[in-house]
Structures are given as structure tokens and as C-alpha cells.
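Run log, item B.
One chain of 146 residues. Sequence copied directly from the ordering sheet:
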Amino acid sequence: MIGLVQRVREASVAVDGQVVGAIGAGLLLLVCAEPADTEAQAAKLVDKLLKLRIFSDAAGKMNRSLVDVGGGLLVVSQFTLAADVSGGNRPSFAGAAGPEQGRALYEAVLRLARARHPVVEAGIFGADMQVALVNDGPVTIPLRIA
């Protein structure tokens, strides 16, 4: 499972001009399932995400997690994270899970995150989405869960 985490001051996702999910300060997670992924990888991703210490403590060091700061989490499916451009200039997305598996694992990430964190918003799987964010730092961290 591939994740791209961005620490944000605010973030939102819109579909057809309507905001479907929005948070204040917290994390934006762009997530992509791969063919070999199972719900175990989804659980590992959520666990890592909620414990990731990328928020500043009183001394200004990255030492606090999303749970510690009580921030929001916005989860957006993004199969393009599996893009492979090694064969040319047109990306191949063969490394991404198919739509049925991708949707199931995306929904697993949401279910697991919502069970453990009070503020979880989401995009719509498979929709043409517009994501807006103010990256804080900027802090952007790729995650690959095997």
C-alpha cells in the first residue's frame, strides 16, 4: 500500500464543485492500494499514520502525532501513486490494484481510521476530485507499507 502524507493547515476535497470532505490542521493522506495488498496493509498504514510524529512539540521538534495534537485526517484515494514511468513518458498504472480491490481497501482504511480517530473526512473513490490544501512546513512524507 502506498501513502503520501502531507501535514496541512487545512485541506478539502470537492467533487462536481461541492466540498465532500474538509479538515483544519492535521494530515492529508493520499492512498493507493497495490494488487498484493490486504486489509493487514491497510491496518498497518493507519497505525503508522496515527503514530507518525510530525507535529511540533513545545521545543519546536517534530515529536507529536496526529492523535497527540487532535488534528483532522482527510483521506483521498489516488491510484496514480502507483505510476511507473520507467518505460517512457506515458505513465503505466498496472501497479495499482483494480477498482474493486482498490475500493475495498480504501474503505478499510477509512473504517479503521474512523474507529481510532475522531476527525476523519474523505474523498469519493473513483471520482474526479479537486484537492485543495495548505501544506504546513512543508512536510510531505511518502509511506510504503508491505
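Observations after the first pass:
- The mean pLDDT is 97.
- The helical segments are 39-51, 66-69, 99-116.
Flagged for discussion on Thursday.
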